[in-house]
Amino acid sequence: MKTLQSTLLLFLFVPLIKPAPPAQQDSRIIYDYGTDNFEETLFSQDYEDKYLDGKRTKEKETVIPDEKSFQLQKEQSVTPPPPKKENDEMPTCLLCVCLSGSVYCEEVDIDAVPPLPKESAYLYARFNRIKKLTAKDFADIPNLRRLDFTGNLIEDIEDGTFSKLSLLEELTLAENQLLKLPVLPPKLTLFNAKYNKIKSRGIKANAFKKLHNLSFLYLDHNALESVPLNLPESLRVIHLQFNNITSITDDTFCKANDTSYIRDRIEEIRLEGNPIVLGKHPNSFICLKRLPVGSYI
């Protein structure tokens, strides 16, 4: 009796049991690695699909060129490129640093001024082995406003070196081996030639006379025997300390025949370290608002 009941129950439940559906075969959906890996897998698969689709599309669009097109391509490939101009190669900017019109050639061991980009406005060539400056160095660089050659070995500068630099405002030649000064450009506001070997005979009588914008003149630590003549009215600072200056006259800074003349722009004159006794020349400073720095006794 019990066997019959079991058999009847089995026939009743069998229709309710359905076979499990087949497993998904899409390799792109993987849940076992967490959310991050799941998104990465989808991205990777999507990238591969797009890459393959694009590759197939490109292959479909590729056509075999006709004979005329092939000949044209061949002629174009054979045609040599136009020759490079010297300035196109910019050799200086490979050795130095060129940035917004400024060229920095500091401590790169050059022994001459390198070719400069035509748009150069500022050149810093400090602490190198440059021995000479020539007119050719800046002939095609008319926009230069500042030159700094501190700490080189410059012994000679051609007179025409700065003749075309009508915009040059600052020229620094400190710590070199100069014995004389070249002709200076007219718009200079600062000239620095301290720590050289310049003697008074190495400065022409009118070297500074026409420099109507010159405000700062640094000629200290040289071998000057006297103060340069015809210093412009525009000067504010004059450094002549540690030279061999032994005397000055009433016309050095003032005007001997004009007691009402006042030189009000000068803020500082330094003459210490020279063998001159300033107290012996009281009339030489009558036009100044401030006495020069130096020995008075």
Automatic annotation (TrEMBL):
<dbReference type="InterPro" id="IPR001611">
    <property type="entry name" value="Leu-rich_rpt"/>
</dbReference>
<keyword id="KW-0339">Growth factor</keyword>
<keyword id="KW-0325">Glycoprotein</keyword>
<feature type="region of interest" description="Disordered">
    <location>
        <begin position="58"/>
        <end position="88"/>
    </location>
</feature>
<dbReference type="GO" id="GO:0008083">
    <property type="term" value="F:growth factor activity"/>
</dbReference>
<keyword id="KW-1015">Disulfide bond</keyword>
<keyword id="KW-0964">Secreted</keyword>
<feature type="signal peptide">
    <location>
        <begin position="1"/>
        <end position="19"/>
    </location>
</feature>
<dbReference type="InterPro" id="IPR043547">
    <property type="entry name" value="Mimecan/Epiphycan/Opticin"/>
</dbReference>
<dbReference type="InterPro" id="IPR032675">
    <property type="entry name" value="LRR_dom_sf"/>
</dbReference>
<comment type="similarity">
    <text>Belongs to the small leucine-rich proteoglycan (SLRP) family. SLRP class III subfamily.</text>
</comment>
<protein>
    <recommendedName>
        <fullName>Mimecan</fullName>
    </recommendedName>
</protein>
<feature type="compositionally biased region" description="Basic and acidic residues">
    <location>
        <begin position="58"/>
        <end position="69"/>
    </location>
</feature>
<keyword id="KW-0677">Repeat</keyword>
<keyword id="KW-0272">Extracellular matrix</keyword>
<keyword id="KW-0732">Signal</keyword>
<dbReference type="GO" id="GO:0061975">
    <property type="term" value="P:articular cartilage development"/>
</dbReference>
<dbReference type="GO" id="GO:0005615">
    <property type="term" value="C:extracellular space"/>
</dbReference>
<dbReference type="InterPro" id="IPR003591">
    <property type="entry name" value="Leu-rich_rpt_typical-subtyp"/>
</dbReference>
<dbReference type="GO" id="GO:0031012">
    <property type="term" value="C:extracellular matrix"/>
</dbReference>
<dbReference type="Pfam" id="PF13855">
    <property type="entry name" value="LRR_8"/>
</dbReference>
<keyword id="KW-0654">Proteoglycan</keyword>
<dbReference type="GO" id="GO:0060348">
    <property type="term" value="P:bone development"/>
</dbReference>
<comment type="function">
    <text>Induces bone formation in conjunction with TGF-beta-1 or TGF-beta-2.</text>
</comment>
<keyword id="KW-0433">Leucine-rich repeat</keyword>
